[in-house]
Amino acid sequence: MAILEIKDLHVRIEDKEILKGVTLTINTNEIHAIMGPNGTGKSTLAAAIMGHPKYEVTSGSILLDGEDVLAMEVDERARAGLFLAMQYPSEITGVTNADFLRSGVNARREEGDEISLMKFIREMDSKMEVLEMEEDMATRYLNEGFSGGEKKRNEILQLMMLKPKFAVLDEIDSGLDIDALKIVSKGINQMRGEGFGCLIITHYQRLLDYITPDHVHIIMQGKIVKTGGPELAKKLEEQGYDWIKEELGIEDETVGQEA
């Protein structure tokens, strides 16, 4: 079993503090969901875990099996077993999906133990079948001309091929219709098990209808203010956030662009 520990994490962008003491522990074989109003730090947490240079960690720690994640470069974090499915995946001209995936798989293997081409193709084809992706997706340039749904499926294809210890899925449900949502959820559910843990960042209960989380956390004003089970997400869907603000005496937040 692996463990990802986030302890009293404070993060700022330029002169604005976004996270103000987030503490969270995720074990493999667990799926956690983080929900909260816009601008409260959900995507900032994802960026800080993966080492986006725009986000400055001013105090606190992130540990992966006791190792200091904050001391690692972005590529070291990926090789150590962290994965981020981005809210807005980038397009990369000139690099095919298959080449990108194979390079990513081999980057996590020892030199001399690279995956064979035939084994890679068989595995990629099987995962693409699960995600109901067209065969030509493998030879198209990475995300170039992809629809929103295709980009999100492609993120899950990367997840299934790379097999990280921990994945952070930043609004993977954004812009998906119900059919695409079911397909993406199927891929994530296939990853569940002893060697995999997941942090899902989402606004909506609908994703959690298909991926049942073990724990749901509510983030407001840069802190996790409430934790519960799947029933917490359902209550949010029915009642919104006002009842939490009233219960905890939280003043209304300024709703702005998600940080």
UniProtKB/TrEMBL annotation:
Belongs to the ABC transporter superfamily. Ycf16 family. Keywords: ATP-binding, Nucleotide-binding. The lineage of its organism: Bacteria, Bacillati, Bacillota, Bacilli, Bacillales. PROSITE patterns: ABC_TRANSPORTER_1, ABC_TRANSPORTER_2. One of its GO terms (molecular function) is ATP binding. Residues 4-246 form the ABC transporter domain. It comes from the Bacteria. This is ABC transporter ATP-binding protein.
